[in-house]
Amino acid sequence: MTAGRPPLPATHREVRLAARLRGALTPEHFTLAEAPLPAAGPGRLLVRNRVMAVTAAMCSMMTDAELPMPSFVPGQALWGSAVGEVVRSSGSAFAPGDLVLHPYGWREFAAVEEGRARRVDPEALPDPAAHLSQGVTAWGALTRAAGVRPGDTVFVTGAAGGVGSLAGLLAKRLGAARVVGSTGSPHKVPYLRETLGYDEVIVRGAGPAEEQLRRAAPDGVDVLLDTVGGEQLRAALATARAGARFALVGALSAQLGGGAGVAAPVELDSSLVVTRRVTLRGFVLHDHPDLPREWVAEFGRGLRDGSLVFAHARLRGVDRAPRALCELTRGCHTGAVLVEV
Q1: Looking at residue 96, what is its pLDDT?
Q2: How far apart are alpha carbons 328 and 321 in whole angstroms?
Q3: In whole angstroms, what is the distance from residue 161 CA to residue 183 CA?
Q4: Residue 229: how many CA atoms within 13 Å on its side-chain side?
Q5: Distance CA 202, CA 72 (A)
Q6: Cα dihedral 15→17→23→24 (10° resolution)
Q7: Total Cβ atoms within 10 A of residue 76
Q8: Would you state the pLDDT for residue 143?
Q9: Are strands 200-203 and 178-183 parallel, antiparallel or unpaired?
């Protein structure tokens, strides 16, 4: 034990999956359990988690659908991105007191393989929790997949989510002349316009998406950053300008659709793709291992000069994590949803 630090407990709390997700997500899908403190040994760190993120993708991981990533297992703890403090290490490059980003949230303490821990510079961002921002996906999609150019009109679906809440300001930062977002929550529209960089916002359920988008972007769409799919993807294609670039990063229409897994079928007019020479490209962060470092530098500059905003909600206590994910699926929050452990 390091001098001056409180003794470690014998047990800790973790959130486990109680049952596979079928239908609407409820707190009954989770169990809060007490477990022995994880053991750290050679090549592993014992980390006290400080803050963790919950994301829509976790809903897909709770189903029995075939996924490109491991699914959660009933009876076992969930996982997800977290920032924590190293409290024990065994002759490694990490030392007690180091802050690390790792994939073992949903618990108060975690045994983390050194290869899965990334040291967090406490000075890089004004708030260490900002390392859990999904802005890196927005930044990569807009710069690597879609290539926003000065003067572009950009449409961002799911503008109030973890990715979309940063995409509007980032598109403007890259030179976009007009940025349109979408949301399913009318009460979020003023914040999206006044704080998060959106010139116009279309609202799911307030009329056909294509009609709303034509009014919001009368000259057409050059870039789409899509986190939703479905009707909004069709609307973007219908309003696409020649040479439009579409970056597809998610499918919230499936992930929040009652346990449908990741399948998100949508009928598109292939003649429009051809005649307007539209590029549709899926974007996955894992294909760009250099992006996180680039993003942290960009995000840090933006937060300090006030040109970027880290929109997020925080709940306190690992026992609140199930509630946080349930609230995310209902659109209760704007931006990232975090839990202070």
Answers
A1: 94
A2: 11
A3: 9
A4: 18
A5: 34
A6: 0
A7: 11
A8: 97
A9: parallel
278 exposed, middle or buried (CB, 10 Å; 0-12, 13-18, 19+)?
A: buried
pLDDT attached to residue 250 = 85
Rounded to 5°, the CA angle 58-338-106 comes to 55
Which parts of the chain sit beneath pLDDT 70? Answer: 1-5, 68, 253-264
Output the pLDDT for position 23: 84
pLDDT of residue 263: 56
Residue 69 is predicted with a pLDDT of 76
The per-residue pLDDT for 256 is 58
**Contact indicator for 341, 131 with CB cutoff of 8 Å:** no
Cβ atoms within 10 Å of 23's Cβ, excluding its own: 8
Write down the pTM of the prediction. 0.90
Q: So what's the pLDDT on residue 22? A: 86
Q: How far is CA 45 from CA 2, 122, 160, 234, in A?
A: 15, 19, 35, 47
pLDDT of residue 260: 45
Predicted pLDDT of residue 262: 55
HEC string of the chain equals CCCCCCCCCCEEEEEEECCCCCCCCCHHHEEEEEEECCCCCCCEEEEEEEEEEECCHHHHHCCCCCCCCCCCCCCCECCECEEEEEEECCCCCCCCCCEEEECECCECEEEEEHHHCEECCCCCCCCHHHHHCCHHHHHHHHHHHCCCCCCCEEEECCCCCCCHHHHHHHHHHCCCCEEEEEECCHHHHHHHHHCCCCCEEEECCCCCHHHHHHHHCCCCEEEEEECCCHHHHHHHHHCEEEEEEEEECCCHHHHCCCCCCCCCCCCCCHHHHHHCCCEEEECCHHHCCCHHHHHHHHHHHHHHHCCCCCCEEEEECHHHHHHHHHHHHCCCCCCEEEEEC
In this structure, are residues 245 and 146 in contact, taking their beta carbons and an 8 Å threshold?
A: yes
Q: Between the CA of residue 34 and those of 281, 320, 338, what are the distances in Å? A: 44, 15, 21
